[in-house]
Amino acid sequence: MKDGVKHQPMSLVSASMDRSMMIWKPDPESGIWSAHVTVGLLSGHALGFLGGMFSTDARYILSHGYNGAFHLWKNEGDEERYDWRPQVVISGHFNEVEDLDWDPSGNYLVSVSADQTTRLFAPWHTNNTWHEIARPQIHGYDMSCVSMTRVRQHQFISGADEKVLRVFDAPQTFVDTLQTISGVNQVGNESRAKRAFVANVPELGLSNKPIFVSAAEEKEKESMAQQQDGVVAEKQLNAPTSTAQSTKAKTPSSNKKQKGKGEDEEEGGGHSLDTAVGFGTVDVETVEVVTRPPLEEYLIQNTLWPETDKLYGHGYELISLAVNHKGSLVASACKAQTWDHAAIRLWETDKWKQVATLPGHTLTVVQMEFSHNDRYLLSVSRDRQWILFSVEESAGEVAVSIVARNKLHARIIWTCAWTLDDRYFATGSRDKTVRVWKQNASQPLSWQEDSILPACQHAVTAVAFAQTLVNGSRMLAVGLESGQLQLYLGSETGSAESVQWSLHMELDANISHAGTIRRLKWRSISSNENAPNAVTAVADNMLQLASCGVDHTVRLYNIKLTQNS
Predict the structure, then answer these.
(1) Rg of the chain (C-alpha set)
(2) 236-250: string of b/e by CB count within 10 Å (b at 16+)?
(3) Of 108, 269, 123, 105, whose CA–CA distance to 188 is shortest?
(4) CB within 8 A of 1, min separation 6: which ones?
């Protein structure tokens, strides 16, 4: 605004692969254009920007990077004095999302994608919005499956287009960040010293290595954090990024002297920062607990989780995973064209050793699900059949046998799910049908078809039962190859011999996926006393459903329940 008249001074923004953006303006006298402001990434972990633009009022500039990330800056100054500050912005996968899983307490969800990353999304309780707060795994292969282990808080296992399963454990920085952003308190008597402080990928290394801090360093950092409450987040989000006024960002140093095992190790069993791994070192001061969703460069550098175990045994690329509800067993399956490679492998989570092999299928097992009482493992395959295994654990031994199998579907069975009471399970197939099965009352070891949902218009690729009854009926979410998402209600009446299913709702195409839905997971509705400030306790009349698909998105739906639902 000048002399009461609005005007837009000539400006041009450019984006470059050198990880910088420049705002250009012409000189009033000579007309020569020059760069007035430069913003960008001071880290060398990104490949630069592919494009950028001004907002309509020129108060913001937005860019997008090589890996699909957005970067946003806001001018908190005026036309005479620039003060460009980085802002919180949405993020997500940039390739097909293959699988997702909820934290057992429902505090956050983890997803894996063909973009070779594992990403973690959690609510920001200040704004009641969801954001990516960690990127635990950056892989060299396309990711295919993931599951929380439940054996330890904040631990997951993942598989990719390789033959190895990998187990990851959260560092203490994540636990602290989850508390500040989502209000989730650490539970149990687990000592902070037992968790790695952060993870690092050493030079020429392929795995995320844990890095510990000594008890003295930890106590000192806690004391400093208490004195500087809230300063960390302001420093991260408000640090000037203009080259004329910014200071150099702290990045992990790779030039420090590497210390051998035993050097600087403190008495009392503590680990010093450099001796815990014996690889490259990381400056602890560069990794900070943030109180707002982290920016892209922080996600890439400082949010990896340490890899604790590798599981070998499969002959081809991993496809599916399942963890029982006690967290004692993990089932895994890989690509297969013969019966021996199609066998499911069972692993115990105490020492991460294989305890059983489950033959039965002849082609790739695409999904598995344990019953809630952990007595059964249900698997579905490209060979068009489902198999129900009985799983019994006793004195460290695992006994497995086939209880039932069926090949009634005419095409590949893509998905399966159990009801909360384990009385029924559902299977969805490329033949556009969802079939519901129940245990034979007269023959407990026999399972039979109970009902068929109304015919779908497209192949069924994902199903999930809600973890509660809705006005006395069972709710089943069905995802289709077209990206459509449907909700069905099944009622049981005394006169009917089977569950009667009816279409309750079909989500609008504008909020549905644009391609095949890969996975559906309902959020746990159990109360969480350790998250008093988190957006974890969904309202009594609300359910939340997470979905992922080939359109590169992870979506979270609020399903509002009415009295007449």
Answers:
(1) 26
(2) bbeebbbeeeeeeee
(3) 105
(4) 7
Cα 433 to Cα 429: distance, rounded to the nearest angstrom: 6
Q: Residue ranges of the alpha helices (H) in 135-259? A: 172-182, 215-227, 231-238
> Can you tell me the mean pLDDT for 278-300?
69
**Distance between alpha carbon 180 and the CA centroid of its chain, in Å?**
19
Residue 537, pLDDT above cutoff 80:
no
SS3 278: coil
Of 448, 444, 454, give the one whose Cα is nearest residue 425: 448
- What 3-state class would DSSP assign to 296? helix
Place of tokens 């005007």: 7
Q: Does 555 score more than 90 pLDDT? A: yes
Q: How far apart (Å, rounded) are the C-alpha atoms in residues 320 and 355? A: 18
Distance, in Å, from the CA atom of 167 to the CA atom of 175, rounded to the nearest integer, reads 17
Amino acid at 92: G
| Token couple for 531 | 């998250």
Contacts (Cβ under 8 Å, ≥6 apart) of 496? none
- Cα 496-498-501 angle, rounded to 5 deg: 100
Per residue in 86-127, pLDDT (tens digit) is: 999 999 999 999 999 999 999 999 999 999 999 999 999 888
> Would you call 469 helix, strand, or coil by DSSP?
coil
The one-letter amino acid at 133:
I
Distance, in Å, from the CA atom of 114 to the CA atom of 6, rounded to the nearest integer, reads: 48
- Cβ pair 365, 342 in contact under 8 A: yes
Could you read off the pLDDT of 26-51 as tens digits, one per residue? 988 888 999 888 888 655 556 788 89
- On the question of pLDDT at 279 being above 50, the answer is no
* CA distance readout (Å), 4 to 1, 7, 10, 57, 222: 6, 10, 19, 17, 53
Partner residues linked to 318 by β-bridges? 334
* Cα 470 from Cα 489, distance rounded (Å): 8
Mean pLDDT estimate for the chain: 82
Residue 559's beta-bridge partner residues?
Answer: 543
